[in-house]
Design brief:
By secondary structure, the protein is an alpha/beta fold. It has one domain: 3-Layer(aba) Sandwich (Indigoidine synthase fold). Helix content is 48%, strand content 17%. It is built from 12 helices and 13 strands. Helix 3 runs antiparallel to helix 4 and helix 6 runs parallel beside helix 7. The longest helix has 25 residues. The protein binds pseudouridine-5'-monophosphate and manganese (II) ion (MN). Pseudouridine-5'-monophosphate binds next to helix 2, helix 7 and helix 11.
């Protein structure tokens, strides 16, 4: 299987030596933020991983080649190119067959990270069940059911139906771990009112559960949910109005399928005058740091 992968030498060396590696997704670069700041944000996320003593492995498909760990030039290319397919599980064979560029979602990144032997993946928020459209359920949730990677995130995006998302995670047997919280974070804001399955207070405590998941060979992933730092929080009461407006605009504009999430995130960013973006960037950097700390705990056995 691994014959399809191109692994950056630095990532390959770290994996071979059992040193900590953190997988990072690329959809947030191509579909989450506009150029050129997307490239700066991606570089800052990689830097945050490095500062905590782990090696970042940003995952994407370049010219049909599944790539683990990008060079700065590849990151720049991806962030500024206009023809990059948002790549979830179902898109992987298409981009590989056609030699296209693809930016991996949470689901796509989990698959490739697992192939490469990376156990920890840091991102912003996972996809989930869309509000008012309970059949629009992100493939991220199914991937969490099937692929043993720990996804460090700030919960599911607040544009989603969080209670239904939690129900689906429960159905699929995905443990939801609260990192220094007993409540599921709501992406831009710290609280959702929904309880997580277990609270941990340190990277070591998270690593113990990830190791148990590996030992039990349950086959699925885990979610480690980290609240946005308090200083950068966009309180739920304020966010709600903007989110409702963005959802209404998506309906009016007739946005469907995989375009829904990028549209909503972009619209929320516009309507909030940058308020959502500040929280989004802060939580991405914070999650990258926590993911790196957990991968370090996992590495020292
Ligand atoms: N969170 C962000 N920005 C993003 C995403 C999440 O802050 O761009 C992306 C992730 O890649 C996630 C995807 O996997 O949105 C979910 O898309 P969908 O709802 O179509 O499954
Ligand atoms: Mn969808």
């Amino acid at each position: 299987m691994t014959f399809e992968l191109t692994i950056h030498p630095e990532v390959e060396a770290a994996l071979a030596e059992g040193r900590p590696v953190v997988a990072l997704e690329s959809t947030l670069i191509t579909h989450g933020f506009p150029a050129p700041e997307n490239v700066e944000i991606a570089a800052a996320i990689e830097q945050a991983v490095r500062e905590q003593g782990a090696v970042p492995a940003t995952i994407a498909v370049l010219g049909g080649q599944i790539t683990v760990g990008l060079t700065p030039a590849q990151l720049e290319y991806l962030g500024t190119s206009r023809n990059v397919r948002k790549c979830s599980r179902r898109d992987l064979p298409i981009v590989v067959a056609r030699g296209e560029d693809g930016a991996t979602t949470v689901a796509g990144t989990m698959i490739v990270a697992h192939w490469a032997g990376i156990e920890v993946f840091g991102t912003g928020g996972i996809g989930g069940v869309h509000r008012g459209y309970p059949f629009d359920e992100s493939a991220d949730l199914l991937e969490l059911a099937h692929t043993p990677v720990a996804v460090v995130c700030a919960g599911a995006k607040a544009i989603l139906d969080l209670p239904l998302t939690m129900e689906v995670l429960e159905t699929h047997g995905v443990p939801v771990i609260g990192y220094q919280t007993a409540e599921l974070p709501a992406f831009y804001s710290r609280r959702s009112g929904l309880p997580v399955d277990v609270r941990v207070d340190s990277p070591e405590e998270a690593a113990v559960i990830i190791r148990a998941n590996r030992r039990l060979n349950l086959g699925g992933g885990l979610l480690v949910t980290v609240p946005v730092p308090a200083a950068d929080e966009w309180p739920a009461e304020e966010a709600q109005e903007v989110i409702n407006q963005a959802i209404a605009d998506a309906q009016t504009a007739g946005i469907t399928g995989k375009a829904v999430t990028p549209y909503l995130l972009g619209r929320v960013s516009e309507l909030s005058g940058g308020r959502s973006k500040k929280a989004n960037i802060a939580l991405l950097l914070n999650n990258a740091r926590v993911a790196a700390q957990i991968s370090r705990s996992l590495a020292d056995k």
